[in-house]
Amino acid sequence: MAASGLEQVTPQGPAGVAVLRFHESTRSETLERLGLHEVPLGSVHLVRPSLDGEVLDEGLLVACPDGSLELHVHGSPALVERLLVGGASARQSGARLSLEAAALARVPGAPCSAGARLLLDQGRGHLRRSLVEILDRADDSQAKNLLDHWRLQRFWLKSVRVVLVGEVNAGKSTLFNLMIGEEHALISSEEGTTRDAVQGRGSLGPWPVEWIDTAGERDHVPLAVERAGQEQARMAAAGADLVLRLLPVDGLQAKPSSPVLGVTLPSVPEVILRSRGGQALAPSSEPDAGTALDVLADPEGARAVVARCVLDSLGLPGDWTRTSGQAALYDESQAEALAAFLGGDSSPLQALLDISD
């Protein structure tokens, strides 16, 4: 979109990474609008683009040798649209949608059928009726119930994001292929085979999961493309719901390597898995504990172990259903409005109800 000063050069739709190119005629203005600065030709910089003071993502600002400038960000369609449309105008446009219209507009992007059904119910007015009752009756218990369910149901609307990190040849790509059910990532004993973040979709029980395989970590990286791949690994881990770190069995006596390229991610939970390359996996809070499970000889057993690690770490039940026709939140702003109501401020909740078709 020329009006935003950016255009998407990667295919549209969900992806691990989206590449946005700056228009030369508005390059300076667009950089300023996103809170960014010019970078030297041929360089790559870790940046945090923002709009109206809100940091949207962590990405790479790439000054290409041909003089063009690119912004590499996570490939969430919502994030890409926000950057392309331009922030404030997008929010104003979205703010005019009623609770019902906004829910129905999100149905095509739901990552699973449970999420689509949830949105269709809210399109029929179930959330509005519940919020009206909460305001009329000052019903804290009903508000808390919606918030409790939002903690789980949000993963029907945005897939659980699990990022695999670890040393080279730790078996990340083998595990990735197992969890998505197909050989999507290239497997090789050669160090540095995976040089980009590779994305695949799967599910664990009722929960849709976005799995991301990343470049292996090592101290001496000979190629710039591999270094860029490791930067993408750090970006992906920073935006994860859970990081699975693979430690080679051969290195059990050594301490686990520092989190993703030496950067600590305190807000992202991390689980350690023991591995023997593509052969073995076992969950462990201590790198030298537990008995390894052979992924090739017992793939279902290994998959069950990993599934339990993911679901337990995020507090997600293995079987979770909802009754059709119930009210449910479908946006973080709605959860914030209910939290404000419980804190004594009902104005954000009333503002949501004031918008009608």
For the structure shown, list the relevant keywords.
alpha+beta, 37% helix, 357 residues, Gyrase A, domain 2, single chain, Rossmann fold
Can you walk through the features of this model?
There is one protein chain. Helix content is 37%, strand content 20%. The chain has 3 domains: 2-91, Gyrase A, domain 2; 97-155 and 327-354, no CATH class; 160-314, P-loop containing nucleotide triphosphate hydrolases (Rossmann fold). The model is unreliable at 87-95, 184-195, 252-266 and 285-291 (pLDDT under 50). The protein has helices spanning 27-33, 77-85, 88-95, 99-106, 113-123, 126-137, 140-157, 172-180, 224-238, 299-314, 332-342, 347-354; strands spanning 6-8, 15-22, 44-47, 50-51, 54-55, 59-63, 69-75, 160-166, 198-204, 207-213, 242-248, 270-275, 280-284, 293-294. With 357 residues, the protein is an alpha+beta fold. A hairpin with a 2-residue loop joins strand 4 (50-51) and strand 5. The strands form 3 sheets. A 7-stranded mixed sheet has the order 9-10-8-11-12-13-14, with helices on both faces. Strands 1-2-7-6-3 form a 5-stranded antiparallel sheet, sandwiched between helices. The two termini are 28 Å apart. Helix 5 packs across helix 7 (140-157), helix 7 (140-157) packs antiparallel against helix 11 (332-342) and helix 11 crosses helix 12. The radius of gyration is 22 Å and the shape is flat.
